[in-house]
Amino acid sequence: MSERKKKSRWFKLDNAGKLYPAIATSRWSSVYRASVVLKEAVNPEQLQTAADRVLPRFPSMAVHIRRGFFWYYLEANEKQLVIMPDTGHPCMPFHWNANNGYLIRILYYHKRISVEFFHSISDGSGAMIFLKTLAAEYLRLRGHRIPSGEGVLDLKRKPSSGEVEDAFQRMDLPNVKLSRRDSRAYHFHGHKEPPHTLHVIAASMPFPAVRERARALGVTATEYITAAMLYVAYLQQKKENPKKPKPIRVSVPVNMRNYFKTETLRNFSSFVNPEIDPRLGDYTFEEIAKTVHTFMLTALNPKLLYAGIATNVADERNLLIRLFPLPLKNLAINTVFRYVGDRSVTSTLSSIGLVNMPEAMRAHVERFELLLGPSAGKGCNCALISTGSQMMLFFSHNLREATLPRETLRFLVGQGIPITVESNQE
């Protein structure tokens, strides 16, 4: 490829992606992991071949990051993305000069293929499409006939402009700015582990059992799990500090592709924060579940979602901010993040829902997984994902104490939901 063509392949960071390089440090960066567990052990040589074939189909992910005078930007990376055995703790920070400069890692262990993403290049929806396409090509190399479709991209088709677009810039947004400031939320207390330590608790449960309990309360499965996390945090705070309670919020990312038509594989998510305020009085679990459901009915109105995005995009388009050199932008973003970011939420619950795949893949796949990396301030993050009738709830935390995972799972078992637990924590 000519030098001229290489230089022409670059991308501005999307509106969501601009946050993460500014707040990243050598000890922490926003990383998450999508995995597929197959029914046979992974062949590393064939996985490398599959990665070599799949990566060119995802030009917005085949990149490295560069510093401009005003913004970071993404530039095409022509080096090989080398797969690696999965050792150590998951979701380690990305160092931009390592891994041939890539902002994704492809890892393997026994029957599991994992892809870790620096959040600047994609959200969970784009990540799952990359993972499914990679798994499908790997299975083809193993001799299985896997068609495209159901989130598996056709490798013979050239990437469309829609797949690499910054969909935020195409939205017809209202001329409004909403306040980002929320009061400080309750956080679980505990002893912080050394940097790069991430404890993972994976809980498997039958989706029909969760759905049955949720329907009995008139809520969705995601709302039910959100309410359980709020209830556990409410009870824990009541033990620790009953006289001066803080609001309890769970941040729930929202896939904006459900509200705006786009093929983008880049970031295109917003978030909503269902909450309870213990200063108003006591709560039962049933009351919290109904509160979450009512909140979601209102918060998932496209007008409110668009208004929230408009607030972020307005800052990006502000002429004065645009003229700030990159070091000043980083300072401003870091300052806002410290006072508005993780302080205002107790935990995060990212729900992918049911993962679809071509029927021919089902015989070779045990399950899909989603794992959020450690947060900058909160002690614990959670992810929810389903494969067939199996629901998986993943807790990732960097506190020695596993209070939120332990008490949430104990509560769900008490509700009659059978759960099998795995953990990397001794």
Number of helices: 12
How would you classify the helix and strand content by structural class? alpha+beta
Biggest pleated-sheet summary: 8 strands, mixed
Shape: globular
Please give a structural write-up.
The chain is an alpha+beta fold. It has helices at residues 3-8, 19-23, 44-54, 124-141, 207-217, 221-240, 285-299, 302-317, 319-323, 326-340, 359-362, 403-414; strands spanning 10-12, 31-38, 63-67, 72-76, 84-85, 104-109, 112-118, 199-206, 248-255, 269-272, 275-276, 347-354, 365-372, 380-387, 390-397, 420-423. Strand 14 and strand 15 (390-397) form a beta hairpin. The chain starts with a helix and ends with a strand.
Topology:
Blueprint: H1 3-8, E1 10-12, H2 19-23, E2 31-38, H3 44-54, E3 63-67, E4 72-76, E5 84-85, E6 104-109, E7 112-118, H4 124-141, E8 199-206, H5 207-217, H6 221-240, E9 248-255, E10 269-272, E11 275-276, H7 285-299, H8 302-317, H9 319-323, H10 326-340, E12 347-354, H11 359-362, E13 365-372, E14 380-387, E15 390-397, H12 403-414, E16 420-423
Parallel strand pairs: 5-6, 9-12, 12-14
Antiparallel strand pairs: 1-4, 2-7, 2-13, 3-4, 6-7, 8-15, 8-16, 9-10, 9-11, 14-15
Helix pairs in contact: 3-4, 6-7, 6-12
Q: How would you summarize this macromolecular structure in one to three sentences?
A:
The chain is an alpha+beta fold and about 425 residues long. It has helices at about 5-10, 20-25, 45-55, 125-140, 205-215, 220-240, 285-300, 300-315, 320-325, 325-340, 360, 405-415; strands at about 10, 30-40, 65, 70-75, 85, 105-110, 110-120, 200-205, 250-255, 270, 275, 345-355, 365-370, 380-385, 390-395, 420-425.
